[in-house]
User: Fold these one by one.
Assistant:
Number 1:
Amino acid sequence: MSTGLRIALLIAALMSGLFVIYRIRRSKVRLQDTLFWIFTVIVLALLGIFPRISFWAAGLLGIQSPANFVYLLMIALLLEKLLTLSIQHSQMEEHYVELAAELALRCKDLEEQIEKLKHKGTDEPE
Amino acid sequence: MKTLILIPAYNEAESIEHVVDNITNNFPQYDYVVVNDGSSDGTRKICKERGYNLLDLPANLGLAGAIKSGMKYANFCQYDRVVQIDGDGQHDPQYIADMLEMMDRDDCDIVIGSRFVSKKKNLSMRMFGNNLIEFLILITTGKKITDPTSGMRLFNKKMIKKFGYNTNYGPEPDTLAFLINSGVRVGEVQVEMKEREFGTSYLSFTRSVLYMMHMVYGILIFQWFRRKDKR
């Protein structure tokens, strides 16, 4: 694994780490959504600091170059994120439909009650 | 000083009536609000029929969302204090007086109704989690919270605003640890809790594991990145 790649990994870890911490300090992100990024930052930093991990893992998986293991790992991490994002997205879509439907129902209920009250008002003098 | 009892309710149809009637009959000095967290059983219907003071969320937000809504309501109606109790009847409102007294006496911002101030914990999986969180809070804050997962908590005005309007203020132990480190005063009062009579606990096994993971991460790592506002 080249020194260049190691430096790139460390810079990537540092930049994303700082960005995540900045978002947390601004209260712009929820705890559960930072877990993945903190984990990723730690993994990238470890790979940058200890290249032996990549050599060992590449040997284990039968990959010729340890750099390729780093790419594989990143693809795996991205796929995992894509999967969870896609699930979250579909849940949000469902929530949105539910919210709109529930809101429409309640508005209708209120409108009917207002109508009833109006009629009551005009009926009473008789 | 106006005190509001905040009752988050998710599928508590069997017990909500008992809980609210107990408050209106025996503790009329407190106001209450039921936050129906998008229940799929008859919780909403029962509350409407019986004319309870109900904040009815149109979707299921989870406990944190229900508490946040309740805190916004409390702030909107200008309450000075909020007591959170569960909708399943395991918390007895008779202890609220003790909690209020402690808040006044010791100038606390949060008072927890704890099962273990003067009593020992029994050994079970649930208590293992409770002990682990207690230990994590102790090593990160230096303060011993004997029952960090207790769902019976009293908040003052400042906490109402924080919990109602800020991100990452879920009503969970990690928020507690962060707040203690920000200089917020937390006290504990001994209370008795009943076993839940109806319904099932929110925490299934996988949920418990996820919950513990969040708490460990939140207390050990996440809280140090957060910005503290001074007391």
Number 2:
Amino acid sequence: MSATKIEAGAAGHGAEPRGKRTEAGEATYLIAIAEALWEEMERDERVFLLGEDIGVYGGAFKVTEGFIERFGPERVMDTPIAEETITGIAIGAAMEGFRPVAEFQYADFMSSGFDMITTALGRYHYRSGVPLPVVLRGPSGGGVRASSFHSFNPEPWFAHSPGLKVICPAFPTDAKGLLKAAIRDDNPVIFLEHKWIYRRIKEVVPTDPDFLVPIGKARVVREGTDLSIVTYGTLVHWALEAAEQLEAGGISTEIVDLRTIQPLDTETVLRSVEKTSRVLVLYESHRFLGVGAEVAAQIAEEAFEHLDAPVMRLAPPNVPIPFSPTLEDAYLPQVPDIVEAAQRLAAW
Amino acid sequence: MATRMDQQRATAERDWRVGLSDDQLRHVLYLLKLCRYFDERMEALYRQGRLPGAIYSGRGQEGTHVGVAYALRPEDSLFPTHRDLSAQLTKGLDLKRVMAQFWGRIDGYTRGRDGNSHIGDWYGARTWTVMSHLPIAYPVACGAALAYQRRGEPRVAMAICGDGATSNGRWHEALNVSAIHRLPVVWVVNNNQYAYSTPNRLEIPTPTIAERAAAYGMPGVRVDAQDVLEVYRVAHEAVERARSGGGPTLIESVSLRWRGHAGHDPAKYVPRALLEEYMENKDPVRRFQDLLLAHEVVDEAAVKAIEERVEREFQEGYEFALASPFPVGEEVTMGLWVEDGYWQREPSREGGTEAP
């Protein structure tokens, strides 16, 4: 089976996700993700979806709503609740030439398939030379009062497991371009969609079916001179809000959105640190051995002579994500926490 | 013109030989003896300290391994465990490269990135590169079988695990999904009666593993692995049923693990009388050899020729392995990502043959 190129929106189907954009052409993060899946399925018949309740129901978050009508139950495959086997099917089908995209209802449940993901999927190519073009995607992250089992950030687990690329986009355009790149990548990719962003953030997203965002490249989303905030996911948006307040107080903040956790774009991070000499590493996975711990270590090793202050970290404590609003807000770094940390860093 | 008696004799012939020609029967004997000899010699080298790493003997279970794998076509895929090297050899692995793998050399199938029977040859013999977390390959076999079904290809995936792995959730997940979609897959359980040291009675509440198939609406067959032809017959039937759209089958093939779980394990938990019973009276290799001698498919000279061939091939494999260079340390990070191209090019052969 070969990849065939199609016109944008050639499907002409009423359920096509692009039809759900605003009149101004803006797509939410969720719609951008749906468009990426749709376009890649149109382009390449080797791509198929599998997961729990993704068919007639359209997925727990409705990302695949309308897909089964267009692509049929073989390419939009409902599975039993069996995360090990969902991953295993994806691996076996990939070995035989397919390009499976498996949806996990919540990224939390990736732990139910952990062995298949980290032992089998991640380590297979290094030991055998057999590529496994598999994408595992699911909603991650907190801030939506979903408590311990529907708010997790598993990115450090998978970034620490050799052989898996890990992507955590913050914007609709990046989500679309990175997911399309992930589906076309010959390596396994863990694609973590932040559920807080799903319907909150929208922008005009490219419609070119070959629009891709390169995996492994960070992006400076706000230029500044006094300090850098290195972050990803929902916290990019909270950092942008904090930066506005800091600007009002005379502090110019640069924000680096990592976009990809593995492979990590250390170069873009270091360039920003060299420019501002102060860096706050802001991340949503647990502070202890979380993503920012590695980022901070690399900065300390590689940019020591450029630093005017110690590398600062702001991240959740090492406890399960709690439910009660007061507890969840205490757990996740809030905008005032980011502002306060940045002010301390600027004053160092 | 054939007489009625001749026809009857021909039918009886077909029955005992389960459709295999003389050449095929002789090949099965060669495989059984190769696997047995390899297993014995590798253990000897291990005990002499001349073989690094680990060994996982499949001795006594050759009836299962050769019987099920011989039922597959080259284009069918096999998802075995570390215990099932004999099945991989039957499927067509090159003994030289197998032995290079055991000695950690660049010509091993994993280029030194894994050792011993954690081996596979996807682009050649169509076998999964074995992992330890059993039965980790069971769900993967579902995916390969799904691919064959989707493309309408007359191919079959076969997965093997031990009795111990049937306690794991994935075993049940995979059987369940395979039955829902009537996938072209054959599930083999090499019941060698012990999960490391734990006997069947502490692993399985039902009298047999095969009867669990009923819970998933698929045929379950229990077969005595001392009879390689019976194993082959059952496996062949299951494979062809899967190939023709008849869905999955569970095969429980019963033997005894003659040696410990791994080379370090003396397996004192196996009752002496049980072990002697199997080694004396239920040896699948000797039994099959006697059968072929009795039916005059081979004579003593032919058996001796097979033994000489096996010994020669082992020796050639051993010399090949020790002459193969080690991978170079500088390439340790290569081959993780597809785009680094490591697996598409010849690796460095500058690693020398002296172990560090």
